[in-house]
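Onboarding guide, step 5: your first structure request.
Type a short instruction followed by the sequence, for example:

Predict the 3D structure of this protein.
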Amino acid sequence: MHFDLTQVDWFYVVVLALLAFVAALIGNVLALGHRIVAAVLTAIVFAGFFVALTYYPHHLPLPTAPVGQKAAAPAPPPPAAPTAQTPAQRRPANPIQDITPPPQPGTPTPAR
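The system replies with structure tokens like these:
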């Protein structure tokens, strides 16, 4: 798999790296030397920073939330209105199309 590094939004990468760095600093200060607690706190602080940066309407030139991108998608066309059919035109709800009568008692069945 090849990456086209010219397509990377480097500003956003730097912003997220700085967020991770600040979150790690905060997590380590709050954990007072406990590595597992520091890792958990860092993840929680980073998640909070990321959600605030991505979903809060701050008008910075960063990628927007996926919710805003979904709203730009075209809406599917409305379903067609059902046409009025007489009872004779309606198809039965049974999915079986070939209806054969059951064999009569006393009639030999063909060998398979």
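Each response can be followed by summary notes, for example: Helices lie at 10-31, 35-55, 66-71.
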